[in-house]
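Recall that a protein's primary structure is simply its ordered list of amino acids. Everything else, from secondary elements to tertiary packing, is in principle encoded there. The following example makes that idea concrete.
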Amino acid sequence: MQYREVIEGKFVDRPNRFIAHVMVNGVTETVHVKNTGRCRELLLPGVDVRLEVSDNPARKTKYDLVAVYKKTLGWVNIDSQAPNKVVKEWLDTQDYDLVRPEYRYGASRVDFYMEKGDMKYLMEVKGCTLEIDGIGYFPDAPTERGVKHLRELAGASKAGYDCTVAFVVQMEGVREVRPCVSIHKEFGEALNEAKRSGVKVLYLLCEVGYDTLKIVEAIYEN
């Protein structure tokens, strides 16, 4: 996926989970943060950030904060809408007969439903932006919605669907994602339950460009 127009700035602070202050060309701008997670280890005063310029002149904020530079790692894409977009682009290259986003299953909307021959697939997508000692972790904030989705996938797997939870690694140099049980123990328990029910775990490794995000490798957990 490619952003329409990107500029760089310096992060100042984040008054709440929806907005941040960023210094752009010597002016402090209020920008929209495209991630409601904590991102505490990323959004530090003075770090370099990348902003997408909005094409909507009626918006209250004219920039979206989409990436942050982490000294030990490089650029991290924190756009929570990006994972589903890059997964859709990737799935379209995987020879499925049908790829349908936002598929209603049970009491949830699963991110993707696919068909290949007689096989039916369900995939739930999670974006990973938290890195500790070279390992990716999810979530970086409690996610009851994520627990619900894992339990839906577990049920679907038992019903005969080929189910996968895909972690989109929105940074380079990280090849594994683990549940962050210190932040949300229940998510880790639900992930283990899903795996016991036959749900596969997939790591989708990305290349983070100046104004792009692209899946370059897919690794299934053993």
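The chain is about 15% helix and 45% strand. The helical segments are 82-91, 144-158, 185-196.
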